[in-house]
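Practice problem: Lipoprotein
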Amino acid sequence: MSCVRVLMAIVLAGLLAACSSVPYAQRQQQRQAAYLAAAGAPVRSFRFFAPLWSWEPLSDTQLAVYTRPNKAWLLDVGGACQNLEFTNAIGLTSNLDEVSVNFDKVLTGHRDFPCTITRIRPVDVARLKIEQAKQRKIESEPRTAAPVR
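Answer key — structure tokens:
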């Protein structure tokens, strides 16, 4: 009896994963598009005083890091930073409180090699919030009143 339950759970998990993969990929693309729209011109470095306030993986080659609630940077990393989307925590290397292109790295804590930062762009957080709000906007119509019986 327990083998049947395990088999059913595996099949159900597979079906749920198949159903949710398309919306997840679409959400990832929307998040990445919002950050790209809010990103400024590339810079050589930015000031970083630990600890990192927040971060968000956008792909295996791109992530957003927040040094403060209203200060964000879009980082491109060389190659693929394996498992970046599934990492629970990251670290950044820095030299004298400065994170620099082609010198500093994103640390994922996995046994993988650190990911070299290849491009840094400042993110206009106010514009990012506007872009994200546009993505959440839905079109709706009021319901017609049900006939009275």
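Discussion: The chain has a mean pLDDT of 81. Students who identified this feature from the tokens alone can consider the problem solved.
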